[in-house]
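Sync notes, pocket subgroup
Present: LS, DG
LS reminded everyone that the earlier model was apo-only. Rerun requested with biotin included. Inputs:
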Amino acid sequence: MSQKQNTFFIGKVLHHCHELHSTNEFALDLIAKNNPIEGTVVTADFQTAGRGQLNNSWESAAGQNLLISIILFPHFLTPKHQFILNQVVSLGLNDCVGQFVSKKVTIKWSNDCYIENKKVAGVLIQNSLTSKMIQSSVIGIGLNVNQQLFTSNAPNPTSFSLEMNQQFELANIRDTLCYFIEKWYLKLKAGHRDLIQKKYIESLYLYQENAPYRDNNGVVFNGIIQGVDDIGRLLIQTNQGLKRYSFKEVQFLHG
Ligand code: BTN
């Protein structure tokens, strides 16, 4: 299925490069120098310096996966509300993966995409903020599609191909991803924040399941994910009550 014809603005301008340092870096450079229109997309077959979360690099074999950055200008969002952009992107990514993979797809907080217990995609969002609003946002997504062998030390990688035993056409997946991210972004613009929050929470990996975690002090505990607050902290019910964790403050031990 291709959704290319169905977007209003995401992917209407597309820069595809054979090789780049990083699609996010290229997109940031476009914003700085070229006045791109909202929805401009950058893709590459290969990145020589693909960036992941926490200063990690992002592994992707040449020509096998989707490496994409989408430029947005969410001026209607204040810096305080920037987490909702992560939620929008995660929901679009989950919908896209669900079109191609007939297994359980979830969002591992805060915005990894999981197929059962394995990571199929990661998201790196780079926002430029003023005191009042998000000036620009580069939504970088690495989605593992046809790669079958992973050599880096990234934990639990998988791909569409490993899960479904077939090869996929990358352009089709790109267009479907643009379609679903736009769908959720337009819901955000239309003010459906409660729906986004509810759907994101229900889609969380290990939502309402008892599972082990480790906190920053090395303490291992069991808890049950209850949701996230509006700045994106993870809420876990533990024996000691409801705990809130910011990014990097808690590690999942399940899976
Ligand atoms: C993560 O660590 O989970 C986030 C990985 C994000 C990787 C993508 S690949 C396309 C885009 N360009 C980059 O340099 N990084 C993101």
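DG: The longest strand covers residues 118-129.
LS: The longest helix spans residues 170-189.
Action: DG to write up.
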